Amino acid sequence: MTLYIFRRFLQSIGVIFIVTALVFVGIYVIGNPVDILVSTEADQEQFDRMVKILGLDKPLWEQFLVYLSKLAQGDLGRSFAFSEPALKLVLQRMPATIELVTVAMLMALILGIPLGMYAGLHPEKAVSKTIMGASIVGVSIPNFWQGIMLIFVLAVSLAWLPSGGRGEIKTVLGITSSLWTADGWSHIITPAINLALAQCTLIIRLIRANVREIALLDYVKFARAKGLRRNRVVYVHIFKNTLVILITVVGLQFGSLIAYSVVTETIFSWPGMGKLIIDSVYILDRPVILAYLVIVVFLFVTINLIVDLLYSVIDPRIRLDGDQGSS
Amino acid sequence: MNARKKSEVGSDTLTAETISPFRDVRQQYIKSPVAVAALCVLLAIIIIAVTAPLISPQDPYDLKVIDIKDGRLKPGSPKLSKLATLSLKISISGLKKVGVPKASVTPTNRSGDTSPDAVQIILEPHAGNPYQWTVKVSPTANGHLDPLQTVNLERLPKGSKLSVGKKDKFRNVWRLSPKDTQELILTLPKTSTDVGQFRVVMSGGPQKKLMTYWLGTDDQGRDMLSGIFYGLRISLSVALSSVVIALTIGTILGLCAAYYGGRTDTLIMRFVDLQLSFPTILIALILLAILGKGVFNVILALVIVQWALYARTARGVALTERRKEYVESAQCLGLSTSRVILAHILPNCLPSLIVIATLEVAGAISLEATLSFLGLGLPITKPSLGLLIANGFDYLLAGYPWISILPGVALLITVFAINLVGDRLRDILNPRLRR
Q: Between chains, do B408 and A277 touch, taking CB under 8 Å as contact?
């Protein structure tokens, strides 16, 4: 187990290294930042000086080392637009995104698990077929358009909820969040639904497939034959075994939610990381793009690691040492 | 398709009564009415996309035919022909002299597209006051300006007064209705010079209905229906070309990984795993942030996003196929490696790949639309559905919802139809689900 954790940890560091290298190549080699930083009227001398300041005259591997050592110190450059450390900018906006993603994930789970269980337990019922039909529609609706529709219905036509922004924020127990205020909740509902819908359909489909498989297994039949109540079989024997797949989904989809929050935040002008990166892309604020990427990759790798470790806690059949059974 | 036929021939020799795989698929496919309906919708969409320039009521990107005055019209509004216009100069001379002053009407140099005799203007001086005139404007029998729509009195001498209407806040224009100008009283300022001049600018005449904007117009006055047809064309072509390229690259790499195994396999699959662990939207976003907008860049980003999926699928299927006897026998026959891979293993991987490619077309359309919506995708010269929706989003809160909703409906129908067709194909072609 310890060996496995150690190996997974090394792997994670490897992934972060590869991605940072790729991003480095992308941002510092393909596009030349000097062209953007130096005005078009600058002469060759000024141009050369800028190249020197940025360290672009050094060989590529040396540039990469400098970049890595700065990265290790948490220095990802200063934003061109805000002239603040890029990392700080991204971290400032991270709580808003995490808050949105968490609420969306909870919504998706609260709605998705019961519906998926139901559809899995009664696959032939009309309700289940409706749920599955609706889930295909859910998969097909492009996220951004669905967000527009939500604004149109909830904010414009019915005028129940605001169309954008984060609302009032408050600090309770050291956590600054909009979830402490009613105004904050009214602002978070629509964007969270927007993010949650796609996840919800995914959860429904996975749970349904999983439940259908498990329901046919011998131990479930045996539990019923033993005379256990149906509810107990469903909630204890079947549900417990869908947890493995649920954890994978929650873990992996958390990352995908962070990625999709770029779209949602843009539509609902939610002041999170996603909106920041889109704004930065428009004005080619490369340090911020880079900082965002490094943080997102870091989040991803961490989440993947946690998910893998949770497997062994939840399902002892999954041997992490790799010498027994399959994963 | 050639490769498919070969496998067909091969299987025919084994068992006498095999129906061709294509017919088998077709027979199973038509068992689901929903899937058949989806296929019909999809075919219609493809026909629309291919023939867009021929069937569109309007070329939405020909600046000559679009009129910004038609902007933001509701669905079902008619497009009317332009109004005839006429601009006449009126000068009243001899104001300071003794006796009755004279009025004359002459066409101006930008007199409009109608002859001056389309309208009759009568000017009568009031008794005893040379500065007060009765003006009567009415269309004549030749009908070019009948009915009159607008009558503007422009460039009146400073301090002039009219018995009806109000002067524009900023410009020296009195905007009047045709009813007001049947008879009105004009009072010129006393301080004016010997000659008082002003212009009468009129528009009117019969209007023909040229076409109907069935789905309304966007902010620029473009027909939404035509815009959506062209948008479908662009969205579909970008998505399809990216899928074809990614499918080719991914399949070749996946087959190589499976066939050669060892280091080749590890190297390719490590990359695939790494890439598949990140959400597609994130990768595409970053690529376009680095590369910038453009058709080529969008296709490139879509290819990079998709190839890994095909590579993994191709490898998975090819690994099981590789162990089968027919591959061994092909190798024993001394066939070249490329022939074994392409003519023997590939045809058997095709069903799974076709299913995934079909579903991925929907994914690619969605992704491209999302990227274009975010302003990172196609340039404005190639308005895909995503760009149309983005364009309309600005007007959603302003009370013109159809500009962004309708292209979205088109996008939804397309993606939905492809997903249904893909799902059905998966049910038929995927042997694991076919029990």
A: no
